């Protein structure tokens, strides 16, 4: 018996020794590592597994120590191969300049069974601003500290099989970037980036697959993220739509549905079953491992309009509030744990609040969508930022949501609505200006160029105040107007909602205590600055000269102290 025990112990030691050698074969594929750019590593394993995408079966992690001495955790992802020989990848982007050390660990059934030899690399400095993070109610900020406000629109998906094939990311993203926009929002779905959809729908781009994650969806998201990076665009990536959990839409082909081999018998069990949650965490792990390195990921979004899956059309509850909130609490916490790049995390509702959802600690950005009531955007931004003291945005807005209606009879109304939604966001505390939904419609109407004027004032404001904003009291009779102070400069937005000419005189509180202002106007349609008055004197209030607004016209005014040496316009 003693001999047997000694032999068994000897074999165990040999086994562990061999196991530790399984991770010795790792390679840094990126020759020169540069701050905030993708650095790729390859790991070769000789380890058996049943499902390389299930971290409860097998997982490979990269463990790093940064130049400042911080410990970092990065999940790696399965690339190819089998139990005899498999290739795994790590995609890392350094947020610091200097020397990093690292090693890889192999987990089997949740236990570490092997560690690689140590490696190191030096990250060189770059002029990239870095990743976007939560900052304040008005702005996000880069790792560099530079403030950012998102200006853009939804590009929910590329053209489906029954739509004009013109509408691809290859066309839409350069068009956005060339017109001054810096942000867009897209979905994962059965017809767009179908990562976890084995069965696809309404698409000629993707085909059904038997793979655990859809290879076509992976490839296309690789391409779009690289494209976004080259164009200076930031993406809010929605992992799911409410449609995915609706019987009449996509639940029948959802990979979580038990009829498709998944764990859940009902959409509610998608949220409540532990097996469903573990499956979803595998998905999050893969997303962070493959794409987390990208500074062009502006935000991770769990669901598009989750409330629309929770309620019937008559507002009867189908999926309990508690189930949805608990799920988001679990997933947002987990995503924070595995994302060393600290991306912004959000989720969205259509128009109904989900009990407890907005208050979750690890949801960085609260989000709602608004249709047929764009004029309520200002008051609702103020309402939700005051209630929850965290950033809030309108991820979708529009004059009309019903695609069955004839938009050709409401073109002027939709265009006016489009414009005011952007300016409402600019003059209120939101880090991402409201994003229109009907991207094809507005592109066809030539409205993408309107972003240029909005982007110009955004740049002006950020430079003037370095990300500081303060709303000021303004009165302008029956004309709608708003005023904001950024640094030493005051900005005013006025809009005429009527079909008649309006004469406007406005009074603004003078929190700066400045004696003399220079007053300029900016025409966002034609990108023209005009000096109205070189010396605008003040008393306790700043009284603007009488201005004339044409029907449905918008006007932006800039009041800068006459002695301001560093004029933000220059």
List keywords for this structure.
single chain, 570 residues, alpha+beta, Immunoglobulin-like, TIM Barrel, 3 domains, six-stranded antiparallel sheet, five-stranded antiparallel sheet, 11 helices
Describe this structure in words.
The protein is of the alpha+beta class and 570 residues long. The protein folds into three domains: 2-123, Immunoglobulin-like (Sandwich); 132-465, Glycosidases (TIM Barrel, Alpha-Beta Barrel), CATH 3.20.20; 470-561, Immunoglobulin-like (Sandwich). The protein is 25% helix and 28% strand. The strands form eight sheets. Strands 20-22-23-30-26-27 form a six-stranded antiparallel β-sheet. Strands 3, 4, 7, 8 and 9 form a five-stranded antiparallel β-sheet that branches. Helix 5 (274-291) packs parallel to helix 7. The radius of gyration is 27 Å and the shape is globular.
What's this model, at a glance?
The protein has 570 residues and is an alpha+beta fold. The protein has eleven helices and 30 strands.
């Amino acid at each position: 018996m003693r001999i047997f025990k000694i032999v068994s112990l000897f074999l165990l030691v040999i086994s562990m020794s061999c196991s530790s050698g399984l991770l010795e074969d790792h390679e840094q594929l990126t020759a020169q590592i540069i701050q905030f750019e993708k650095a790729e590593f390859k790991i070769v394993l000789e380890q058996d597994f049943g499902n390389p995408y299930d971290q409860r079966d097998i997982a490979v992690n990269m463990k790093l120590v940064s130049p400042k001495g911080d410990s970092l955790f990065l999940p790696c992802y399965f690339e190819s191969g089998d139990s005899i020989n498999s290739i795994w990848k790590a995609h890392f982007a350094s947020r610091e300049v200097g020397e990093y050390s690292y090693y890889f660990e192999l987990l089997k059934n949740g236990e570490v069974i092997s560690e690689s030899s140590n490696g190191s690399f030096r990250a060189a400095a770059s002029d990239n601003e870095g990743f976007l993070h939560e900052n304040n109610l008005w702005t996000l900020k880069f790792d560099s500290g530079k403030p950012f406000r998102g200006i853009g629109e939804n590009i929910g998906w590329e053209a489906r099989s029954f739509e004009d094939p013109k509408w691809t990311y290859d066309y839409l993203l350069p068009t956005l970037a060339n017109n001054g926009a810096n942000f867009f929002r897209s979905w994962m779905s059965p017809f767009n980036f179908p990562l976890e959809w084995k069965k696809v729908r309404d698409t000629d781009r993707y085909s059904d697959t038997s793979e655990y994650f859809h290879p076509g969806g992976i490839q296309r998201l690789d391409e779009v993220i690289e494209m976004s990076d080259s164009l200076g665009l930031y993406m809010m990536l929605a992992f799911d739509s409410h449609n995915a959990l609706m019987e009449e839409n996509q639940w029948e082909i959802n990979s979580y549905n038990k009829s498709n081999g998944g764990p859940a018998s009902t959409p509610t069990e998608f949220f409540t079953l532990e097996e469903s949650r573990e499956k979803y965490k595998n998905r999050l792990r893969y997303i962070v491992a493959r794409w987390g390195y990208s500074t062009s990921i502006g935000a991770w979004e769990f669901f598009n309009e989750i409330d629309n899956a929770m309620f019937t059309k008559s507002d009867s509850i189908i999926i309990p509030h508690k189930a949805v909130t608990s799920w988001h609490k679990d997933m947002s916490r987990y995503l924070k744990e595995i994302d060393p790049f600290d991306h912004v995390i959000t989720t969205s509702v259509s128009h109904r609040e989900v009990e407890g959802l907005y208050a979750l600690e690890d949801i960085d950005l609260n989000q709602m969508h608004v249709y047929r009531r764009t004029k309520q955007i200002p008051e609702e931004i103020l309402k939700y930022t005051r209630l929850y003291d965290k950033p809030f945005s309108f991820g979708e807005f529009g004059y009309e949501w019903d695609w069955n209606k004839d938009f050709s009879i409401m073109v002027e109304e939709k265009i006016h609505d489009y414009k005011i939604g952007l300016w409402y966001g600019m003059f209120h505390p939101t880090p991402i200006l409201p994003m229109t939904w009907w991207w094809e419609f507005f592109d066809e109407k030539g409205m993408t160029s309107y972003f240029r004027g909005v982007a110009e004032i955004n740049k002006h404001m950020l430079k003037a105040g370095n990300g500081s904003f303060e709303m000021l009291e303004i009165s302008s009779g029956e004309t709608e107007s708003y005023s904001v102070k950024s640094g030493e400069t005051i900005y005013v937005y006025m809009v005429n909602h009527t079909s008649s000419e309006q004469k406007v005189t406005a009074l603004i509180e003078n929190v700066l205590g400045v004696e003399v202002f220079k007053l300029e106007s900016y025409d966002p349609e034609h990108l023209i600055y005009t000096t109205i008055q070189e010396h605008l004197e003040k008393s306790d209030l700043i009284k603007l000269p009488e201005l004339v607004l044409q029907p449905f016209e918008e006007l932006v005014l800039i009041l800068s102290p006459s002695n301001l040496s560093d004029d933000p316009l220059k």
